[in-house]
Amino acid sequence: MDVSNWTQVPEFVFLGFSGVPHGHFYLFLVFLTIYLVTVIGNTTIVTLIQLDSRLHSPMYFFLSHLSCLDVCYSSVTVPKILVNFLRQSHTIAYNQCMAQMFFLMTFAGSECALLAVMAYDRYAAICQPLHYSNLMGNQIRIPLAIASWIWGFLDSAIHTTLATNLSFCGANQIDHIFCDVPPLLKIACSDTYINEITLHLASIFMGLSPFLFIILSYVYILSAILRIRSNTGRRKAFSTCASHMIVVTIYFGMANVNYNRPSAGYSLGIDTLISTLYCIITPMLNPLIYSLRNKEVKEALQKVLGRQKKGYTSA
Fold first, then answer.
1. Residues 29, 188: contact at Cβ < 8 Å?
2. How confident is the model over 173-185, as pLDDT tens digits?
C-alpha cells in the first residue's frame, strides 16, 4: 500500500453511547455525581492523611498516592464525557485523543505498580515487624512511590509513541467511550502488528508481574497471620490487609476483562459497561472501601468533623 495516500483524521467519534440516543442529560447527572464522589472521596483521604499524625505511616503514605492516582485517572476521561453529553456530540480531536490515551495509561500503569508496592508494605509490616521501620523508612518508601509513577509513564510513552505512527485514513468511529489502545488498533489502516505485540507484552510485564508479586506477598502474609496464636491478633492483622485485597481484586479483575477480551470482542453495550466500571466506577470505590473498612481513617474523619463542629459552635 502507498502510505503517502493516507490522510490523518482530524477527530474521532465515540460510539459508546450511541445506543442511548435520548436521556443524555440524565447520563450527564449520573456521571457528574460519580465524578464528584470520586474527587471528594479521594481528596478527603489525602487531606485526612496530611492532617492526622496517626496516619503518618508508610501504609497511608502509599494510600495518599493511590488516591491522587484515582483522581487523575478519573479526570482524564470523565470531564470529556460530561462535555460531550452537553454538546450532544461524542467527538474528540486527534491530539486530545493521543493525550487522553497517554495519561490514561500512565495512571493505570502507575496504579498497578503502586498496588504491588502496597502489598510489599503489608508484607513488611506483618512478616518483618521488627525491621519494618528500616524496610519502609523515608529512604525506601519515597523512591518506591516515585518508581510507581515512572513505571506507568514508561509504559504509556511506548504505547503512545507507537499509536502516533498509526494511520486511520478516514476511519474515525471508535467503539468505546474514551481513547485507548485496543479500540484505536481496530480502526487503524496501517500495520498494527508491532502495536499488538507490544500491548500483549506490556499486559504481561506491566500488568501481570505486579499482580503475581501481590499474590506472592499475600501467600507469605496469610502464612504469617495463620501462625498468630490469638484470634484478636489474627483479626487485627487481617483487617489491615482486607481493604487492599478488595481493591486489588476489583482493579485487576476489571483490567483483565477490559484488556484481555476475546478475539471476537464484546458487544458495544457490554464494552461500554466494562469500560465504565474499570475507569470510572473503580476510582470512586477505592476511598469508600478504605474509609468504610478502616477504623483509623473513620476516627480521623470524625476528629476533623468534630473540630469543625466545635468551630462553628464557638463562632
1. no
2. 888 889 988 889 8
